[in-house]
Amino acid sequence: MRFEKRKLKNGITVLFEKRDLPLVCYSVSNPFGGAHETSDIKGVAHLFEHLLFVGTKTRTHEEISKEIEKRGGILNAFTAQEVTTYWCKLPSEHLFVGMEIIHDILKNPTFDAVKMEKEKKVVIEEIKMYHDDPERHVCELIERALYHKPFGEGITGSAKTVQALTRDKIIQIFENHYAPEKFIVTVVGDADIDKVCSKLEKDFTPIGKKYEAIKPNKKQGNITEERLGIEQAQVIWATHIDLDDKTQYAIEILNTYLASGMSSKLWLEIREKLGLAYTVRGTIETEKNYSYYSIYAGTTKESVEKVKELITQGIKDVSKMTEQDLTEARERLIGLRKVSTEESINTMQKLIFEEISSGKSEDFYNFESELRKINLSDVKTLAKNLVKEYSTAVIIPK
What we know:
Blueprint: E1 2-7, E2 13-18, E3 23-30, H1 44-51, H2 61-69, E4 74-79, E5 84-91, H3 95-107, H4 113-132, H5 134-146, H6 159-164, H7 167-177, E6 184-189, H8 193-203, E7 222-227, E8 233-240, H9 247-259, H10 265-273, E9 280-286, E10 291-299, H11 304-316, H12 323-340, H13 344-358, H14 367-371, H15 376-386, E11 391-397
Parallel strand pairs: 2-6, 7-11
Antiparallel strand pairs: 1-2, 3-5, 3-6, 4-5, 8-10, 8-11, 9-10
Helix pairs in contact: 9-12, 9-15, 10-11
């Protein structure tokens, strides 16, 4: 694997994985997301993701998207708790067109007042869509159970907070938090990295901003929400984890053994043996200043408490895990990583979050060797600590 990391003169961090296929995935990430917002501006980081695409001083919305799409490319963005990323994927010969578009939207957004109000309406419809999806909404509820406000209030914000954002306020926040010296640029594919870096240094001038870390305040709690018009209950069990160099790999093994895939212990127990759920899955959520582990299941209203007990007991039963179980979970993880990262977009995202969380994106390539350092005692000790204190979020039919 050919990987290179550079720090440019203007402060931009560049992560580059060279691939030989004639495709390239290019992204610019700015470390401002939902975690950096106060309650009154909740949703503004996600709103930027929309507003930057509606027009610049030189391009309309249609021209922005058409420049990429007419060349067979994809243009998109995503907002997380600690970062917002703007990215494209297209044939390698068109990389600099993609760079030009993304650089333009970051440097020259107009924040047109009329289009802004229209886009607010679009975002409010998106908020409604997520709220109306119980499986999605319960994921927001568990963060509300795990963290004090404003962290647990959702990345998209509410209709009230989004509508209240004025154009002047939006511009002020953008100018305060978006800066080239904070940017993480990721390039995965067939590219001339020297030319990429040269263009980045030409296009962006530092403006003297520093990254401000936000440490969310943890708590534990239980939330139950009743909802009309649904028949399935949604359940999430979750707990905080502190991801040191060892724990971040031990939790991957634990989750694979316990709640990842059709051969995992909780899948076999809750779905195959008892028929209480269609899906059982574990998720590890982590960025720079927070991390938690959760297990989700969709079940009947009558089985909610039983499923929560089974999840807790399943974690306790990790004490019965064998050396063979450890080996199988580790090898499955290694295989899944290889399959997943065949797609350059997945590699792009993993490099971004590795850099955001630790500042060491190169550790992404040490995944297999670090997994092999984890022993059975590491996993069992972690599981024992997980059940000491935990939270739940449930949506049940009314």
